[in-house]
Design brief:
By secondary structure, the protein is an alpha+beta fold. The protein has 13 helices and 26 strands. The strands form seven sheets. Strands 7, 17, 18, 19, 20, 21, 24 and 25 form an eight-stranded antiparallel sheet that branches. Strands 1, 2, 11, 12, 13, 14 and 26 form a seven-stranded mixed sheet that branches. It starts with a strand and ends with a helix.
């Protein structure tokens, strides 16, 4: 089979690319997804993320190598394994990052990526609940709305204001700093993934768009320094698909570098031990892994309005399920992370360096450790960590998981910033508006000294699922793609996903991944 474009990965970026490129009826587009169709009801009911997160259901559920900064623990890395990719299993929070993040990209030698350059592409995708404005789009496919607001979410916002933090009604507006409600990709009580927004409306209408699910890309087919197709296993059968124009790799911060390496594109030192012949030496592939280190403050509460496990809670959740099936409203229509904050641990900083996610239930160890009763949680993460990791290969088997080493909390500055954020979060949760929930800290009650709290951080920190950077954009020796996302030294091959970010954005990464695809689509259609 032959196409103009083959897109590897039907995730946050891949679904956008498929939509935009197939809008031209003269162009044949193939979209490959290693997972299955996005039919699971756990995907579409927003609260279903609580069940997807700790399991292998539509989830790659990767693990890291042992992390010395976490006391030797294995980190956990959920990634979407279905149409929509991680936009089908994430927390649905729509955050672009700080405006200066994109100016940083441009300053690193990437023309066309400043905030002024990328804002039109954020707006192009967006159907904002408040309508179009200078900061928001009103006519895009991606619905950006607001989740139901539990009283605990409102109390968190009031508590943070009492602690001295400004109220911010729009984290994606003129300024990011402050506390307020999150915008979310939820529409009329249903998750609005990129598969729902960009793929579903056109898949059956466009005969020039072919989508394969359960299709594991094994390697990129090369002729010299040109990509000419993809070897893929589709439902157990190996196929060689040809690309007349380009192969677009959108397999994510773990999958994209893995596929390049399996195809012989990378550092010889990484490929040779696995018996992979080097087709193109590119030492930056798999380097520069960046992720937000995150710790969750967990509290018990007797308040049964907070979702939890008890007899009363079971009755309330049954009632909530009935409400959701009838009206698509209530707690089942919520991502449970309805409010948050972007704060500075030092008032002299030019932009926030920590982010908080207020969660109206007790979420412990990625919801893999369940507690009887009810509770509340608050995430705190470091937005611009100095700990830099890698992605490599465990073997030459394309069906094996990649080797993931984020090196979380390996830099002392990250530990210090997280400690400050932990204390600030405690201060917020001790304010009067939270008193009605009579919360008791599970893991750090009575601990106040730096050393004992740092021990808690090392025992409990992990990722908040924002890996980027492993095929970074730039023009230095470590760069993998150029400013138009073309793989350095290759023809007919681009990487289009969060792996191209040279630095982390200050916030959740899904919105920026969608923007990256919009940006790439313009260049591709222009070409």
């Amino acid at each position: 089979m032959e196409f103009d474009y083959i897109i590897v990965g039907a995730g946050s970026a891949g679904c956008v690319l498929a939509n935009r490129l197939s809008a031209d009826p003269s162009v044949r587009v193939c979209l490959l997804e290693a997972g299955g169709a996005d039919r699971s009801p756990l995907i579409h009911a927003p609260i279903g993320v609580a069940a997807i997160l700790p399991t292998r259901h539509v989830n790659w559920a990767f693990k890291t190598v042992p992390q010395p900064g976490l006391g030797g623990r294995l980190g956990y890395q959920p990634r979407g394994k279905t149409l929509g990719g991680s936009s089908s299993i994430n927390g649905m929070i729509y955050i672009r990052g700080h405006q200066s993040d994109f100016d940083d990209w441009a300053a690193l030698g990437n023309p066309g990526w400043s905030h002024a350059d990328v804002l039109p592409f954020f707006r192009k995708s967006e159907m904002y609940h408040g309508g179009a404005s200078a900061h928001h789009g009103g006519d895009g496919e991606l619905y950006v709305g607001r989740a139901p607001s539990h009283p605990a979410s409102q109390a968190f916002i009031k508590a943070a204001q009492l602690a001295g933090h400004p109220y911010n009604p729009d984290f994606n507006g003129a300024d990011q700093e402050g506390v307020g409600p999150y915008d979310v990709t939820i529409r009329e009580g249903r998750r609005w993934s990129t598969a729902t927004a960009f793929l579903k409306p056109v898949r059956e209408q466009r005969s020039n768009l072919v989508v394969f699910t359960n299709a594991q890309a094994e390697r990129i087919l090369l002729q010299g320094k040109r990509a000419v197709g993809v070897q893929v296993r589709i439902k157990g059968k190996r196929e060689a698909l040809k690309a007349r124009r380009e192969v677009l790799v959108s397999a994510g911060a773990f999958g994209s570098p893995q596929l390049l390496m399996l195809s012989g594109i990378g550092a010889e030192a990484e490929l040779k031990p696995h018996g992979i012949a080097v087709q193109h030496e590119l030492p930056g592939v798999g380097q520069n892994l960046q992720d937000h280190p995150d710790v969750v403050l967990c509290y018990r509460s007797q308040d049964t309005s907070l979702p939890g496990f008890s007899v009363t809670g079971g009755v309330k959740m049954t009632q909530a399920f009935v409400e959701y099936t009838r009206k698509k409203t209530g707690v089942f229509a919520s991502n449970c992370g309805e409010a948050g904050a972007f704060l500075k641990t030092d008032p002299g900083l030019s932009r926030p360096d920590i982010q908080l996610h207020s969660v109206i239930s007790l979420v412990d160890n990625h919801n893999r450790r369940l507690h009887w009763g009810h509770g509340y949680s608050c995430h705190v993460c470091v937005l611009r960590p100095k700990s830099i990791g890698t992605v490599g290969l465990h073997s030459a088997d394309p069906h094996a998981a990649p080797r993931i080493d984020p090196k979380l909390l390996s830099h002392d500055d990250d530990v210090r910033t997280l400690l400050k954020g932990y204390r600030m979060t405690r201060d917020i949760l001790e304010q009067a508006p939270m008193a009605r929930y009579a919360m008791r800290d599970i893991y750090s009650h009575g601990l106040y000294g730096d050393e004992e709290l740092i021990e808690v951080l090392r025992q409990r920190t992990d990722t908040i699922y924002h890996p980027v950077g492993t095929c970074k954009m730039g023009n230095d020796e470590a760069a993998v793609v150029d400013s138009q996302l073309r793989v350095q030294g290759m023809e007919g091959l681009r990487v289009v996903d969060a792996s191209i970010m040279p630095t982390l954005v200050g916030g959740n990464t899904n919105a920026a991944s969608i923007m990256i695809a919009e940006r790439a689509a313009q260049w591709l259609m222009g070409a």
